[in-house]
């Protein structure tokens, strides 16, 4: 890979991250709710909501036949995201 390809990859990843952050407006709602609701309750609600929504998408949009394989794939994706955020000094 040359320097241009590396720069493009970083830009594409940055662009995807920015797109996700725009879609994840619920994070602002959660931050605002922290003044009235314990963060530990909010984070469990997020986990429940993510699991419920992902199950809906898997079954009704993606028509996933192998549920356990999908669970493994989603758990791996979540694990990677969580590790990345825990390593982020700005969090």
UniProtKB/TrEMBL annotation:
Source organism, top-level taxon: Bacteria
InterPro entries: DUF3144
Protein name (record): DUF3144 domain-containing protein
Organism for this UniProt entry: Hoeflea ulvae
Upper classification of the organism: Bacteria, Pseudomonadati, Pseudomonadota, Alphaproteobacteria, Hyphomicrobiales
């Amino acid at each position: 890979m040359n320097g241009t390809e590396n720069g493009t990859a970083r830009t594409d990843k940055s662009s995807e991250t920015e797109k996700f952050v725009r879609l994840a407006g619920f994070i602002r709602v959660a931050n605002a709710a922290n003044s009235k609701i314990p963060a530990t309750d909010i984070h469990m609600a997020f986990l429940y909501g993510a699991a419920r929504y992902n199950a809906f998408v898997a079954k009704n949009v993606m028509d996933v036949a192998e549920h356990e394989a999908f669970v493994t794939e989603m758990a791996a994706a979540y694990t990677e995201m969580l590790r990345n955020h825990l390593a982020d000094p700005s969090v």
